[in-house]
Amino acid sequence: MKIKNLNLVSYGGNQNWSKSKKMQKVGCGVIAMADLTMYLAEQNPNMMTDAIRKINKPKGLYNKHDYLEYVRFFYVHYVILLMHKGMLGITLKHTMNRYFMLNDIGLKAKWKMMQSDESMLRDIRHLIRKNKPVILAIGPNRYNPFGKKGISLYVDKDGELKSSIRENVHSHYVTVTGVCTIKGREYLVVSSWGKKYYIDYKEYRNYVNNVGDKFTSGILYIQGLL
């Protein structure tokens, strides 16, 4: 999903565009859900809503101002609770199910946690094949809620994956848009902060298993026909 931001084209939304300090700090889950609803509406006319239809899309690029208006609309009408530390995965599930119910969309969200490395990747691959982006949580440090350990997000530079400025990322939601294998390693293609990044899946799961936890580091699984 591409959004025109001045002379740049973003890869999904960016919480830092918001004028709200709270959204800038802990709005990643709201952005991920808003992006998900827009993508689903693009793929299936039966999932289009009046609010999404109002977003101008000249030359295939969403208008940034209209996009932010939709994010505000989504937040006011559907978000169950946005705490000062962000949203739990279970809250994302309830928010999306509220959205599906109020818009008569035949989908259901589940928050999948306590998954093995293999089962999570299998679920992500399955949803991507069904053209459903996956909201992925990079949870906080398990034993130290103020801990700063996290994972790196990589960028593609001239066909090679390089480290980005996004290091030690934790307590954050990203939207998985693809899965790829590069030099024998599995990578998740994700949208975050309006950019396209790559997450080394093995590095992510090492973080979950040793620093984070399988409760907060889960995925939003969307069930139903599409």
Question: What features would you describe in this structure?
Answer:
With about 230 residues, this protein is of the alpha+beta class. Strand 6 and strand 7 form a beta hairpin. The chain has a 6-stranded antiparallel β-sheet with strand order 4-11-5-8-9-10, with helices on both faces. Helix content is about 35%, strand content about 25%.
Number of separate strands: 11
Strand composition percent: 25-35%
**What are the segments in which pLDDT stays under 50 over at least 5 consecutive residues?**
none
- Major sheet characteristics: 6 strands, antiparallel
Number of discrete helical segments: 7
| Helix/sheet category | alpha+beta
Describe the structure using short key phrases:
226 residues; alpha+beta; three-stranded mixed β-sheet; 7 helices; globular
Summarize the structure.
The protein is of the alpha+beta class and 226 residues long. Helices cover 35% and strands 26% of the residues. A six-stranded antiparallel beta sheet has the order 4-11-5-8-9-10, sandwiched between helices. Strands 2-1-3 form a three-stranded mixed beta sheet. A two-stranded antiparallel sheet has the order 6-7.
Describe the SSE topology.
Layout: E1 2-5, E2 8-11, H1 21-26, H2 28-43, H3 50-53, E3 62-63, H4 64-78, H5 89-102, E4 108-112, H6 117-129, E5 134-138, E6 154-157, E7 160-163, E8 172-182, E9 185-192, E10 195-200, H7 201-210, E11 219-223
Parallel strand pairs: 1-3
Antiparallel strand pairs: 1-2, 4-11, 5-8, 5-11, 6-7, 8-9, 9-10
